[in-house]
Design brief:
Strand content: 15-25%
Shape: globular
Radius of gyration: 17 Å
Mean pLDDT: 83
């Protein structure tokens, strides 16, 4: 969704050329190809293999009565090209946030100031919540990465009543000493604004935040995810953020500011645009989105 409310965007043109350029990343980067509602419109801490071979995502569970004691880790992964690597997947928001407004509105330190613990996320006009989307794609992504041997940890798996707060999301990746962290989101911009973009950490130093060591590797991770996302999903880079590059750099997101390991956010599309919403609500497309992200992560980890 929209990360802390983007200012009104200025539409830009040329997404087809940008998509081709990003897809070219997979042709030039070694090992890239084939590696393997806050109410709608409001903004949080940010603001699907083919359908025929889609593995069934793990069933959603209702939020527990009390917070879980930590992130969720899957069963031991099989041996594969990513054996020995740890990936943290951060499903943006939480389906239970809507029922815990007081808790998620509490302020937390994001390294450059203070913001809400979390938000509910956006939704399509038909009511499909971003939190449902992010959890579904994250579970699919977990399956794909585990099949390649990676240890995968989710910051939440629908197993806690709300959150975690954005600062805790960062700490989970840090504690796991993750080789890569991906925060999965969908945007909540205006109709006509389409496409995906990957958010990269800016250079931040002070007040408990220091991203100096992760800016370069996070950018490499983001570029590889963007290139693979174009190739696998066929989606074009955002026509309203990132100058058609599919990349955007931010210094106001606690999940990035407080990270000490390579981390990016991906806004998979705009839930408030009917054409993008049709993709985001498609199970087959969500599988392609997960595969595009997985191959980007795999390419980065095998470089």
């Amino acid at each position: 969704m929209r990360h802390e409310d983007f200012p009104p965007p200025t539409p830009r043109h040329g997404p087809v050329l940008a998509a081709a350029a990003l897809a070219g990343v997979c042709l030039t980067a070694a090992g890239c190809a084939g590696d393997g509602g806050q109410d709608p419109g409001a903004g949080p801490e940010s603001a699907s293999r083919s359908a025929a071979s889609t593995p069934s995502p793990r069933p959603s569970s209702a939020p527990a009565a009390t917070p879980s004691t930590g992130p969720t880790s899957a069963k031991p992964a099989p041996q594969g090209p990513l054996t020995g690597r740890t990936v943290v997947i951060d499903p943006g928001h939480n389906p239970g946030n809507r029922d815990h407004t007081r808790e998620i509105n509490s302020q937390v330190d994001i390294g450059t100031g203070h913001k809400e613990c979390d938000t509910t996320g956006t939704a399509t006009d038909a009511g499909y919540a971003e939190a449902r989307f992010t959890l579904d794609v994250s579970r699919r992504l977990r399956t794909l990465l585990e099949e390649k041997g990676a240890k995968v940890v989710l910051t939440q798996d629908g197993d806690r009543p709300y959150g975690p707060c954005v600062d805790e999301r960062a700490r989970i990746g840090n504690k796991e000493r993750a080789d890569a962290v991906v925060s999965v989101h969908a945007d909540g911009s205006a109709t006509g604004n389409r496409g995906f973009h990957v958010i990269l950490p800016a250079a931040v130093n002070g007040d408990g935040a220091d991203t100096a060591k992760i800016v370069a590797p996070s950018r490499e991770l983001g570029v590889r995810i963007a290139g693979n996302f174009v190739r696998v999903t066929g989606s074009a880079p955002s026509n309203y953020i990132g100058d058609n590059t599919g990349l955007d750099t931010r210094n106001d997101l606690g999940g990035l500011n407080l990270s000490t390991v390579p981390k990016v956010f991906i806004e998979c599309g705009n839930m408030r645009d009917p054409k993008d919403a049709a993709l985001l609500t498609s199970s087959g497309w969500r599988q392609k989105a997960a595969l595009g992200i997985a191959e980007g992560v795999g390419s980065y980890l095998k470089r």
